[in-house]
C-alpha cells in the first residue's frame, strides 16, 4: 500500500514551492497534479494539517493511501460549502434581521447550538417574508463556490453519483442541484401561506442524523457500500456524516469539524477534493 500526501492551495504553486514541500515532507517522489496541487509519496499517513510557505502561501496537507480513493458517491452540505453564503442569513439581511439571524447561525454551525432549535429561532425571525424576497435573494445574493461545478461534473464522470444533503431549504437547493447537475438533493421544505413564510418546516427537519441516514440510504439504493462515500461539510451538523463516510472532508469548517474529519481543506478551492482522489487537473470536467 502506497501512502501519499496531497498538497493543495488556492494559490498557484511554483517549482520552489514544490521543492520546499518535498524537503519538508522528506518525500522521495512527487507528481504534479495541476497548478494548485501536487502529490508526494510518503512513508506514513499523518494527521491533516496546513502550513505557510516562506513566501506566505497557505498550503493544505492531507494524507491518504490508495485504499482511500475507492469511492463511488459524493455527498455535500450546501450552505457555506457549495455556496459562499448561508441562504437564511441572506434572506434575513433583506428583511432587516441580518445580525440576529447570523448570530444564531454562527452558534449552530461552529459553537454547538442545537441545530433544530437554531432553525426554529431563525425561521421565527423571518416569518412573514414574501416569496419574492427569496427569489431576489437567490438571484442577487447567492453564489456557487468557485470549483463546485467542476467538482460535481468531474466526480460524476470518474467515480459515481453526487448528492446535496442540506440543512437549508429546497427553495434554494433544487435550483443549485440543477446548476451543479447533482443526481440527488435533500433539504428542508419551507411552508408558505399566501406567498409568505409561515416560519414552519413541512415534514421532518434535515438535521445531522437525517443527513447521515440519507447518505446511507443513497448508498443502499445504489447498491453501494458506505465505505465508498465521500462526505463534505463545514458545520457541526455535518460531523456525523463526515465521520461515518469513507472519506470525510471538512471544507472551510469550524474547529470541531476540522478535528472530526480525516481530511481538512482550509486554504484550497473545493475542487481540490479531486486532487485528494488522485485526479490531475487535465482530467477535470469544466
Task: Write a compact overview of the structure shown.
With 286 residues, the protein is an alpha/beta fold. It has eleven helices and twelve strands. It folds into two domains: 3-67; 73-85 and 144-276, Rossmann fold, CATH 3.40.50.
What does this structure look like?
Strand 10 (229-233), helix 9 and strand 11 form a beta-alpha-beta unit. The protein has 286 residues and is α/β, with parallel strands linked by helices. It has two domains: 3-67; 73-85 and 144-276, HAD superfamily/HAD-like (Rossmann fold, 3-Layer(aba) Sandwich), CATH 3.40.50. The strands form two sheets. A seven-stranded mixed β-sheet has the order 9-8-7-6-10-11-12. The chain is globular, with a radius of gyration of 19 Å. It is 37% helix and 26% strand. It has helices at 15-25, 87-94, 98-110, 115-125, 131-140, 148-158, 170-180, 208-221, 239-244, 255-260, 272-276; strands at 3-8, 29-34, 37-42, 49-52, 58-65, 73-76, 161-169, 184-193, 196-202, 229-233, 247-251, 263-265.
Amino acid at each position: 500500500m502506497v501512502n501519499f500526501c496531497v498538497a493543495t492551495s488556492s494559490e498557484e504553486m511554483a517549482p520552489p514551492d514544490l521543492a520546499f514541500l518535498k524537503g519538508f515532507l522528506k518525500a522521495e517522489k512527487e507528481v504534479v497534479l495541476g497548478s494548485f496541487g501536487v502529490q508526494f509519496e510518503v512513508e506514513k499517513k499523518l494527521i491533516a494539517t496546513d502550513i505557510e510557505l516562506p513566501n506566505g502561501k497557505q498550503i493544505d496537507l492531507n494524507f491518504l493511501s490508495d485504499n482511500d480513493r475507492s469511492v463511488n458517491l459524493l455527498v455535500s452540505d450546501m450552505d457555506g460549502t457549495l455556496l459562499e453564503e448561508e441562504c437564511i442569513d441572506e434572506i434575513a439581511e433583506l428583511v432587516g434581521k441580518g445580525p440576529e439571524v447570523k448570530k444564531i447561525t454562527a452558534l449552530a454551525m461552529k459553537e454547538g447550538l442545537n441545530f433544530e432549535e437554531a432553525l426554529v429561532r431563525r425561521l421565527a425571525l423571518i416569518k412573514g417574508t414574501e416569496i419574492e424576497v427569496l427569489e431576489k435573494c437567490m438571484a442577487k445574493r447567492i453564489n456557487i463556490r468557485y470549483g463546485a461545478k467542476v467538482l460535481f461534473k468531474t466526480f460524476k464522470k470518474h467515480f459515481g453519483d453526487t448528492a446535496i444533503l442540506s440543512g437549508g431549504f429546497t427553495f434554494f437547493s433544487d435550483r443549485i442541484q440543477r446548476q451543479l447537475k447533482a443526481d440527488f438533493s435533500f433539504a428542508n421544505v419551507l411552508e408558505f401561506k399566501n406567498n409568505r413564510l409561515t416560519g414552519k418546516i413541512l415534514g421532518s427537519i434535515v438535521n445531522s442524523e437525517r443527513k447521515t441516514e440519507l447518505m446511507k440510504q443513497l448508498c443502499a439504493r445504489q447498491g453501494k457500500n458506505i465505505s465508498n462515500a465521500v462526505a463534505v461539510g463545514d458545520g457541526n451538523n455535518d460531523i456525523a456524516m463526515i465521520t461515518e463516510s469513507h472519506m470525510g472532508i471538512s471544507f472551510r469548517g469550524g474547529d470541531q469539524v476540522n478535528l472530526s474529519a480525516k481530511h481538512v481543506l482550509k486554504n484550497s478551492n473545493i475542487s481540490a477534493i479531486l486532487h485528494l482522489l488522485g485526479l490531475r487537473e487535465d482530467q477535470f470536467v469544466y
